[in-house]
Amino acid sequence: MPVINKIDLPSADPEGVRRQIEEVIGIDASGAILASAKDGRGIDAILEAVVARIPAPQGSSAKPLKVLLLDSWYDSYRGVVLLVRVVDGTLRQKQKIRLWAAGRDYEIVSLGAFAPFATEVGELGPGEVGFITAAIKEVADARVGDTITEASKPCDAPLPGFQPAKPMVFAGIFPTDPARYEDLRDALDKLRLNDASFSREPEVSAALGFGFRCGFLGLLHMEIVQERLEREYNLDLVTTAPTVRFRIVLRNGDVVDLDNPAKFPVEGEIDHIEEPMIAAVIHTPPEFVGGLLKLCQERRGTQTGLNYAGEKRVIIRYDLPLTEVVFGFYDRMKSVSRGYASLDYEPKGYQPADLVRLDLLVNGDRVDSLSAVVHRETSYIKGRDLCIKMKELIPMQQFEVAIQAALGSRVIAKTVVKALRKNVTAKCYGGDITRKRKLLEKQKEGKKRMKQVGNVEIPQEAFLAILKVE
Amino acid sequence: MTLADPASGILDATRALGVYVHFPFCRARCPYCDFATAVCEPIPHDEYAAAVAAELSARAGWFRGERAPELRSIYFGGGTPGRWRSEAIGLVIDTTRRLFNSTGPLEITVETNPGEVTAESAAGLRAAGVNRVSLGMQAFQDHLLAAIGRQHSVAAIAAAVHAVRGAGIDNLCADLMFGLPGQTMDDWRHSLAALVALCPSHITAYALTVERGTRFGALDRAGKLQRPDEETVAAMYVTAHEVLQAAGFEHYEISSYARPGRRAVHNTLYWTGGAYLGVGASASSFRPLHDGTGWRFSNPRALKTYLRSAAVGKGNPLPAKIEHRAAEDLENEGLWLGLRTSDGVERAAHARRYGRDPLASPERAAAAQKCVDAGWLSVAHDRLRLTDTGFLFADEVSSRLWLGR
């Protein structure tokens, strides 16, 4: 039901927008309603259209309670607030309810609707949308899409289509300062109060010490969580390169889910490895199709479709290994298409692939958090490029630092960071201490963002170097 | 009394005082120099002297107190203050002497370039009261002097030394640079030997720093500045240390060497938390307070802005930058400034001034231990100091101690 708003603006171009809707989104906009929320134009038409075009609720208040959980959020005073829509039955104050997927029972503390401000109501019937609080402590129990029913008289089946959010991308998160491990744990716990979709379990890395391996819905989600941890909880973090969950079938028949390259089994034990695939849909203006196809081919993609939708839009479909997408695909896609292409994807099962673990050795020691699972064919090039990149990123230290890439025990590339010969500013001229202090401050801040691995200091961004390798 | 008023608070009168006078005028701008300089003819000798004298009078009150600190040094830096008419220099010296208490010896230094000194100008400086002259010699190869845009020749160096000594000024300092474009280790050894032969009392030997906003900075970014590599520059530093120590100079600060008893009084104030009043364009001041905090402030950089604000404020230009530094910040500064000297940081004196031992915090003690392990720092019960190698890593040590990790 397209509605074109803000038509009161002097620059409004409703016809242009109507065309864009058809070209970009691909839906029929001939019947789009023109409206201005500011001066009230079109409001009646919208309300009429809602009544006429959207089917009325089919539920019955006589049936056992069946309620869809639309959204949930954490309120520090009231606990978790649930936004719900009643399908069958009636929600009442003080009712005992059950969250289907969580399998937990709660008593309703308050029941209300947004009109538009939160207003308490006595009950909510079929088709009505409102909110519930029920002294729920964790958002993790209130998963979007779950069914709510009455504890004493449950409905016979939940609403269809519910899928718990499943982490797809994994990364290790460590405090740069080991002393702040507890702070990181607390911060993650607090964050999970209102974002239950990321998982976390403690991880111990030989290189990075104590931290957590976290699972995220996608790369954007990962960045958001990381950003929030740093900003809201004032933590300095090292995040390892993201990885996907591989399925490793061992010779002895065991199947291992691997979301941490550091735990890659020895090659002799592996029968074969499967990797998660995605069905990717890329929307782009036609002039970038060539570059995007090339990118998808390089990333081991299989084309499944290519359609022109209007003159200015092409839809490219590819099956791609998720791991290739995680390794900087998005940035590349944006640069190839000068920012115009957009990517949408959904999981598409697992496929066997010839994968190996690429290790990075710093002064002869394997740094577990720098290992990556890559395709055998590109492993040599990746190894070489990774060494070059690391040489750029690791600053000179007191001694020479050798950086090697290895497959198993075989070293395939090597670079050297020369020893630091001096670090001193010659003069403090004319008593301008402030200027000198600022120089030192910059160095100090740089050091703060370093992680000590063995006796080598590695900057945070080096742990993500693999993402920068083409 | 507002928060950003550097005149507020009671001065810590236990610290010695220096006056720095900035004279921005130069014959030509050197391509590596990013100090406040001005190339203009004719130099407004009297206008500038009047502005500086008025500023001194207006600010003197900030550096006096019940127990006025002892004035130990007047330093004319630049620019090329040797180009200032000696009567103007004399006026500034007399004004300063009148305003501040000074009973002991007073070091009065003027910086100049070899090509600018004549027998007459040196005599003029002497008559004005100057007792120390610092010559920007920089190198003893004409092609290197040309490469760094200096206006003098090697021949002018000996002549200038002769003129200064002839005027009765025996406290002679020399600036020498290494890491210059095209400079070899042999060039550097030759410069050091030639300088030692001139018997200066003090030497500042420093590496060329390429700063943004200079001509060298632009060339460097364009990849067109061929300089010796870090390894060679480090080796040149070590060579200076060896050659000058063997010649009887004490390496008493990262870039400074002195004959016994000839350490720079003025620069020592900077390294040891002394008070200083800087007057003239861009000059920086430090006003340490009784409560352990302090004011750092500096004048406008541009000559015109300085002269204008000096005129508007009746000789009391509002500093362009003002910072009030907390006691713990000054403690930290005291540490890294002190470490620049061979005396290092005397722990008891540090504790007396800042209320705690420099290694009181466990974080800093741990960071210090790492620097000791690296061979950069020596920690004794009475003092901390950088080792000979540590001098080359002073910034590394300082930023680690500051971070405490």
User: What is the chains' assembly state?
Assistant: heterodimer
> What is the CATH first-level class name of the largest domain in chain B?
Alpha Beta
Largest interface: A-B, 25 and 47 residues
Query: Which term fits the overall shape of chain B?
Result: globular
Taken as a percent bin, the fraction of beta residues of chain B is 15-25%
Inertia-based shape of chain A? globular
State the major sheet of chain B: 9 strands, mixed
* Percentage of residues assigned to helices of chain B: 25-40%
CATH architecture verdict of the largest domain in chain B: Alpha-Beta Barrel
The count of domains of chain B is 2
Assess the beta-strand content of chain A as a share of residues: 35-45%
- The H/E string of chain B reads EHEHEHEHHEHEHHEEHEEEHEHEHHEEHH
- Alpha carbon gyration radius of chain B: 21 Å
| Tally of contiguous helical segments of chain A | 10
Unreliable spans of chain B: none
Can you give a write-up of this model?
- The complex is a heterodimer of chains A (about 475) and B (about 400).
- Chain A is of the alpha+beta class.
- Helices cover about 25% and strands about 35% of the residues of chain A.
- In chain A, the strands form 7 sheets. Chain A has an 8-stranded antiparallel sheet, with no helix packed on it. In chain A, strands 17, 18, 19, 20, 21 and 22 form a 6-stranded antiparallel sheet that branches. In chain A, strands 23, 24, 25, 26 and 27 form a 5-stranded antiparallel sheet that branches.
- In chain A, strand 28 and strand 29 (about 455-460) form a beta hairpin.
- The mean pLDDT of chain B is about 95.
- Chain B is built from 15 helices and 15 strands.
- Chain B has 2 domains: about 15-270, Aldolase class I (TIM Barrel), CATH 3.20.20.70; about 345-405, no CATH class.
- The radius of gyration of chain B is 21 Å and the shape is globular.
- Chain B has about 400 residues and is of the alpha/beta class.
- In chain B, helix 6 links the parallel strand 5 (about 170-180) and strand 6.
- Classes of the chains: A alpha+beta (about 475), B alpha/beta (about 400).
- At the A-B interface, helix 9 of A face strand 6, helix 8, helix 9, strand 10 and helix 11 of B.
